[in-house]
Design a protein that fits this description.
The complex is a heterodimer of chains A (98) and B (306). Chain A is α+β, with helices and mostly antiparallel strands. Chain A has 3 helices and 4 strands, in the order βαββαβα. Chain A starts with 7 loop residues before the first strand and ends with a helix. Chain B is an alpha/beta fold and 306 residues long. In chain B, helix 6 packs antiparallel against helix 9. Classes of the chains: A alpha+beta (98), B alpha/beta (306).
Chain lengths: 98, 306
C-alpha cells in the first residue's frame, strides 16, 4: 500500500503570468512525482499540488527562489488518510449492514 | 437501508450490498442493471428509478468516475436513498418521476475505487494495463469520443490525464456509451466529480460555445443559487473551457454532441482545506446541497421536453 508520510499538499495562487508559468514548469518535472489535485488554470485560481516528502525541499526552493508565495493546505497527507480509515473502521464496528 | 451509515465512507462491497438492499426494499420503484464489466471484471451497476412505462425520457447521474473523489460515490449513495424516501412526498421529485426515469451509476470506476481503498488512496484513473506501457490506467474523463486526443489531455500513459490508446478504450466508458446509445431517450446527463465547487457545461475541448449556451448558463445560475441557499457553499459556473481549462475527450462533451442538451458536470466540495480527503462529516451536507441543484436541473428537463 502506498503511504504518504511526510507528504504535503501546497496551495499556490499565481497572481502574475510569470508566476503561472513557473508553476506550470513544475508540471513537466516528472522526477518530482507531483500530483496536481487542482491544475493551473489561470491567475487568481488556486493550484493544489500533492508533493511527496523527497520533493518538498526542491519544490519549496523553486517557489521561494521565484518569489511565489504558497500555503501548506495539508501538513501530512498520511495523517488525514489514517483518520479516514479509522472513521470507516469505527463505523463498520457500530452498524454492520443487516 | 434506514440503518445504513450515510455519514461515513464505505467499501465497494458495502455500497453494492446497499444497492441490493435498496432494490429489495423498493421493488416497484428501484431496479439494478448491469451495463458492463470493468477492466478487472467487476460489474458496472446502475440503479434505475422508474414508476413504470418503457423507454421513457430519462435523466442520468454518475458519481465516482475518478475513483479518489470519495465524496461523490458517498453522495451517490445518499441520492439513491433520497429518491426512495421522497419519491411520493416531494412534489417536485414525484412529478419528475411521473414523466421520467432516473439512472444512477454510483461507482463508475470500481477498479480504481477498490485500489484507493487497498493500495493507493490517491488513485484517479482506471486500472487498465497495456503491453509496452510502463504505467497503468487511463483518465476516464479524457477517453470519450469528443475532441479525443486533442489539447487538454496527455498521450503519456504515466500522466494523470492520459487519454488512452483510443476513444472508449476503457470498458467503464464504453459501457456508458453503449447504454446511452441503446436507450436513446436520455434528456439530461450529469457527471459528478470533486473538488473545487463548480457547475460546468460543455465544451471543454473547444472554445466554440455550445448552441444552447444561454439556456445552460441560466440553468446553472438557478442550480447554484439553490445549492448555495442551504449552507452558503459558494460555487462558480460556466463552460468547462472558460471556467477551468481545456480538457479534451470529456464525458459531457460527448453526451452533448449525442444530443443530450442538459449535460452538466459538478465539482463538489472541498473549498480548499482537505481536497480529496474531505472529512466524512461533510458527506451529508455536501449531498444535501448538491441534491437541491440536481432538482433544478431535473425539473428543467422535465418542463422543457425536446
Amino acid at each position: 500500500t502506498e503511504t504518504f508520510v511526510g507528504h504535503q499538499v501546497l496551495r499556490i495562487v499565481p497572481t502574475t503570468d510569470e508566476e503561472l508559468q513557473k508553476v506550470e514548469e513544475l508540471q513537466n518535472l516528472e522526477e518530482l512525482q507531483l500530483d496536481f489535485w487542482l491544475a493551473p488554470r489561470g491567475l487568481g485560481h488556486p493550484v493544489d499540488v500533492h508533493v511527496p516528502f523527497p520533493s518538498l525541499q526542491p519544490v519549496k526552493a523553486h517557489l521561494e527562489a521565484n518569489g511565489i508565495s504558497y500555503s501548506i493546505m495539508i501538513q501530512d497527507v498520511q495523517a488525514l488518510v489514517d483518520h479516514e480509515q479509522t472513521e470507516m473502521l469505527r463505523s463498520r464496528r457500530q452498524l454492520p449492514l443487516s | 437501508t434506514n440503518t445504513f451509515d450515510y455519514t461515513t465512507y464505505h467499501s465497494l462491497d458495502e455500497i453494492y450490498a446497499f444497492m441490493d438492499l435498496l432494490v429489495a426494499e423498493n421493488p416497484n420503484l428501484v431496479s439494478k442493471l448491469e451495463i458492463g464489466q470493468s477492466t478487472e471484471n467487476r460489474p458496472l451497476y446502475v440503479l434505475k428509478f422508474s414508476k413504470g412505462g418503457t423507454n421513457r425520457p430519462a435523466i442520468w447521474i454518475d458519481t465516482g468516475i475518478h475513483s479518489r473523489e470519495w465524496v461523490t460515490q458517498a453522495s451517490g449513495v445518499w441520492f439513491a436513498k433520497k429518491i426512495v424516501q421522497d419519491h411520493e412526498n416531494d412534489e417536485g421529485l414525484a412529478s419528475i418521476l411521473d414523466k421520467m426515469d432516473i439512472f444512477l451509476e454510483i461507482v463508475t470506476n470500481p477498479d480504481g475505487f477498490v485500489f484507493t481503498q487497498t493500495q493507493n488512496r490517491m488513485w484517479r484513473k482506471t486500472r487498465s494495463k497495456r503491453s509496452g506501457s510502463l504505467c497503468i490506467g487511463v483518465d476516464p474523463n479524457r477517453n470519450w469520443d469528443a475532441g479525443f486526443g486533442g489539447p487538454g489531455a496527455s498521450g503519456n500513459p504515466c500522466s494523470e490525464t492520459y487519454h488512452g490508446p483510443y476513444a472508449n478504450s476503457e470498458p467503464e466508458v464504453k459501457a456508458i456509451v453503449d447504454f446511452v446509445k441503446s436507450h436513446g431517450n436520455i434528456k439530461a446527463f450529469i457527471s459528478i466529480h470533486s473538488y473545487s465547487q463548480l457547475l460546468l457545461y460543455p465544451y471543454g475541448y473547444t472554445r466554440t460555445p455550445v448552441p444552447d449556451q444561454k439556456e445552460l448558463h441560466e440553468i446553472s445560475e438557478k442550480a447554484v443559487a439553490a445549492l448555495s441557499s442551504l449552507y452558503g457553499t459558494s460555487y462558480k459556473y460556466g463552460s468547462i473551457i472558460t471556467t477551468i481549462y481545456q480538457a479534451s475527450g470529456g464525458t459531457i462533451d460527448w453526451t452533448y454532441n449525442q444530443g443530450i442538451k442538459y449535460s452538466f458536470t459538478f465539482e463538489l466540495r472541498d473549498t480548499g482545506r482537505y481536497g480529496f480527503l474531505l472529512p466524512a462529516k461533510q458527506i451529508v451536507p455536501t449531498a444535501q446541497e448538491t441534491w437541491l441543484a440536481l432538482q433544478v436541473i431535473m425539473q428543467h428537463a422535465r418542463d422543457h421536453p425536446y
